[in-house]
Amino acid sequence: MMTDALLRELRTALGEQGVLTGNDIPARHGTDWSGLPPVVPVALLRPTSTEEVSAALRICHAHGQSVTPQGGLTGLVGGARPSDGDIALSLEKLTGVEAVDLQTSTLTVRAGTPLETVQKAAEEAGLFFALDIGSRGSCTIGGNLATNAGGNRVLRYGMARDLVLGLEAVLPDGTVLSSMNRMVKNNTGTDLKQLFIGSEGTLGVITRAVVRLHPRPTSGVNAICRSPDFAAVLGLLNLAREALGGGLSSFETMWPSFYNFVVERLPELRPPFPAGPELNVLIEAAGFEPDRDHERFEQFLVTAFERGFLTDAVVAKSEQESRRFWAVRHAGSEYQRVLGSITSFDISFSNDQLGDVVEECEAAVKANWPTAYALSYGHVGDGNIHLIVNIPGVEVQPRNEIADLIYPITGKYGGSISGEHGIGTRKLNYLSYSRDDREIALMGLLKRTIDPRNILNPGKMLPLDAVAGPTGEKLALD
Amino acid sequence: MMTDALLRELRTALGEQGVLTGNDIPARHGTDWSGLPPVVPVALLRPTSTEEVSAALRICHAHGQSVTPQGGLTGLVGGARPSDGDIALSLEKLTGVEAVDLQTSTLTVRAGTPLETVQKAAEEAGLFFALDIGSRGSCTIGGNLATNAGGNRVLRYGMARDLVLGLEAVLPDGTVLSSMNRMVKNNTGTDLKQLFIGSEGTLGVITRAVVRLHPRPTSGVNAICRSPDFAAVLGLLNLAREALGGGLSSFETMWPSFYNFVVERLPELRPPFPAGPELNVLIEAAGFEPDRDHERFEQFLVTAFERGFLTDAVVAKSEQESRRFWAVRHAGSEYQRVLGSITSFDISFSNDQLGDVVEECEAAVKANWPTAYALSYGHVGDGNIHLIVNIPGVEVQPRNEIADLIYPITGKYGGSISGEHGIGTRKLNYLSYSRDDREIALMGLLKRTIDPRNILNPGKMLPLDAVAGPTGEKLALD
After folding, report:
1. H/E run at residue A261
2. Distance CA B193, CA A212 (A)
3. Which of A46, A68, A84, A91 could be bridged to A111 by S-S, CB 3.0 to 4.6 A?
4. pLDDT tens digits for B222-272?
């Protein structure tokens, strides 16, 4: 519980501007993009330096005060939404690109910097920061790393984890752990930064990072292809990997459920094909030889057509047309307006399983709610799909019932209940479909070792009972 | 201390063939390629399954018996060399590629499988396993992962860590932690496999892995170039990254100290250039369009020449000639024969620092021992160099004195004392040049949490006093 003493200490350490309470706390700090109802934090901290983050956590640790770290608040699973009684610690004042190093192709950045700012800084230096997600203008690089963000270019450049060379994080007791490595190779012991990447702010608060930049592609080709069935989509994917000479950067598939819905409900998007029974694939290739890249892409389409992997294709003739194709793929942002409340999934598999999985998930939803919408699309190159469910005419969607249908299917295929969005609080009850008891127990052991007072984002990512103590004789380890 | 009871239990669990003692233990299990004198383990365990590894560790854990895991015994820092009183646990009987999955481009393998076997299995399936190091015929995939091996293609495909999707490891108490994920995207909590990769067998014994395969390049170009100075080498590197369209896979630089020594001492290698004051760069590009790739490479060389990045270049006209170029680069295996005992380094930096670092290191050695050989070469694309030192006419090389010269220079530049070989026992005393007290303390905390009896490779990677307990008030964490 927040006491006057705690508040006084925090104000002394962070100044009046660094500690907001009551009505001074902007409403947006109450929740994230998960759609979960807001919870007003007991205080909002806005440290402006690593030292202030350290001081804040040291004080909260001493008082046993729970803390929810916050980046851009764009998460979809409630990871940055305070629990009752939490202090929110926002990194929004800890911003700025500190350095772009052309020689090592690295960029050093403070955690609260928006992703788009990082992308622009790289671009201004003639390089390329490959991470890209729809919320780029709002999300922060610290949040991207804490959640191991994925996005549109994982196929080529990997997840956020793969783009990090060095990290600075503050441990729950205020210890600053600075591993701001800029080297590609550094085998000097356990790679500690991995503890914090993708752990959703439960083990430390990321304050700075060194990220890896890539050469900036000078050519881009975007096309939408129609494939007769999922086997053809897989054939198309494998051919694209071979034939585009490493240039393939996105391979996004829209099942008919999704595509036809978009075509019918959002004609203003001017989709390239009418509704139909086929699957639709948005392919992006990026390279360094504009003429040659276009020629190679055309050749790839011809071969794909000859092999029956596609029946039709449209190559974007302009930047504008490319954006139009992507608008179809990103029509997800319009769901709320068109459908009202939705239940969405972010599930991941071996990519050869996706055809069966989509069929089974859509059928399961329809079997229970014959009028339901079950719309499937996603990053097929990465084995990751999103499924959107809406039961028309129902004001409060039966989210739990829908989840109880879909996650068992995920488990049956050995899939992941979260490809990229994380666990937060939304998926806590389903974690065991993707992680077994021993993995959960080891995560709990790490959590209570590094955060013995359980002050850092408690109740997120891991069930509280896994954190509380040994769950089995083995991982008790004495 | 190994008791009769312990031995009986191990024999019951692993059978007579699984537990060797005394003269039955092959001599090679006493040490690795570090050159450190052998220590005969008190027993050699050769489990044939994950279950037997688990049983062996459970028994050793119960008895407080220390265990050194062993792969191919090719490590260079003593990590697999038993300490006095250790049992050696060899993975040599836990071998075999279990599956190659074309659709997901993954390969599932048991830890004791030699790297070369993994490479061949991928190749037979029409794919490519990118990890490659000189000891490929002897080293094992489990050892590669436990040490996060680097090698010749890091520039393009990353370290061993970057090639792992799933891992199975046995914890010190025998718990089998199976995270045999085959998915590219799986954000369901802390990425536990990272604890074991690069931790040199101190936190768990890797038993199986799912590794990532790549498309097999269908064309390769190898060339040796001469550059007037290190600035030109960096220019050449940056140009190669841009101009080879992502095809650059190796960029290995031989300073005159190394190259001229090789030319003069090993004329049978038939090196392409005579001795001279220039730096020599071996470049490999690999792609999927043989004609186009060669054309692109020629154009790259022309541009590099025009910009003054090189003064001469020879492109290999055959596989055989490529192998001849690489033999010059790998002449390191001949050092022992030519020089006798050597002291070698594996140090890593931002790549723009390498010119100064090499100059300073070679000068420091010569200042102390004017007749010394100090030969420099390495993976300049990765910022990683190897330095070989020999003081002629001295039977017992002053290894510690040489290290005490080189590692402070490494520390001064913020470099790594180990780019790829790891810490083992050889570099324990120098760890603090690359990791600060807090990082070492957190590694110690992880070690004593996961291995509270300190039975797994004790005294490797981390100084024993860091493992023993809190070294500072902060990381005591209560």
Report:
1. helix A256-265
2. 22
3. A91
4. 999 999 999 999 999 999 988 887 789 999 999 999 999 999 998 888 999
Let me know if B291 is exposed, middle or buried by CB neighbors in 10 A (0-12, 13-18, 19+): exposed
**How close, in Å, is residue B196 to chain A by CA atoms?**
8
Determine which of A97-106, A185-194, B39-48 has the lowest per-residue pLDDT on average: A97-106
Say if residue A477's pLDDT is above 70.
Answer: no
Q: What is the pTM of this model?
A: 0.95
Mean pLDDT estimate for chain A: 94
Say if CB A128 and CB A176 are below 8 A apart: no
What's the residue count for chain A? 478
Q: Tell me which chain A residues have a C-beta less than 8 angstroms from the C-beta of B189.
A: 198-199, 423, 431, 435, 439-440, 443, 461-462
- Residues A434, B188: C-beta atoms closer than 8 Å: yes
Round the CA-based radius of gyration of chain A to a whole number and report it: 23
CA distance between the termini of chain A: 33
Are A194 and A161 in contact by the 8 Å Cβ rule? The answer is yes
DSSP string over A326-375: HHHHTGGGGHHHHHSS-EEEEEE--GGGHHHHHHHHHHHHHHH-TT-EEE
Interface of A with B in 424-463 (CB under 8 A): 427, 431, 434-436, 438-440, 442-443, 445-446, 449-453, 461-462
Between CA B225 and CA B115, with CA B220 as vertex, the angle to 5 degrees is 105
Distance from C-alpha of B294 to C-alpha of A70, rounded to nearest angstrom? 51
Q: Across the interface, do B445 and A440 touch by the CB < 8 Å criterion?
A: no
Q: CB of B7 within 8 A of CB of B53?
A: no
Distance CA A89, CA A458 (A): 13
Is residue A53 within 8 Å of residue A61, measured between CB atoms? no
Q: How far apart are CA B77 and CA B341, in angstroms?
A: 15
pLDDT, tens digit, for every residue of A409-447?
A: 999 999 999 999 999 999 999 999 999 999 999 999 999
Per-residue confidence band for A337, with pLDDT thresholds at 50, 70 and 90: confident
φ and ψ at A395, to 5 degrees?
A: -70, -50
Of the candidates A446, A453, A170, the one whose C-alpha atom is nearest the C-alpha of residue B448 is: A446
Note whether A129 and A66 are within 8 A (CB): no
Task: Tell me the C-alpha distance between B172 and B384, whole Å.
Answer: 33
DSSP tag of B215: E
Give ipTM to 2 decimals.
Answer: 0.94
**Which of A107, A190, A435 to substitute to test the interface with B, most B CBs within 10 Å?**
A190
Q: What residue type is A100 in one-letter code?
A: V
- Interface residue B260 vs chain A (CB under 8 A): no
- The nearest alpha carbon in chain B to A243 belongs to B288
Residues 6+ apart with CB under 8 A from B470: B441, B445, B476
Identity of the residue numbered B390: N
The whole-angstrom separation of Cα A303 and Cα A299 is: 6
A421 touches B at CB < 8 Å? yes
Average pLDDT, chain B: 94
Put simply, whether A148 touches B (Cβ < 8 Å) is yes
Contacts of B462 in chain A (CB under 8 A): 189
- Please give the span between the terminal C-alpha atoms of chain B, in angstroms, as a whole number: 33
Cα separation, A23 vs B296, whole angstroms: 63
CA nearest to B460, candidates B433, B437, B426: B426
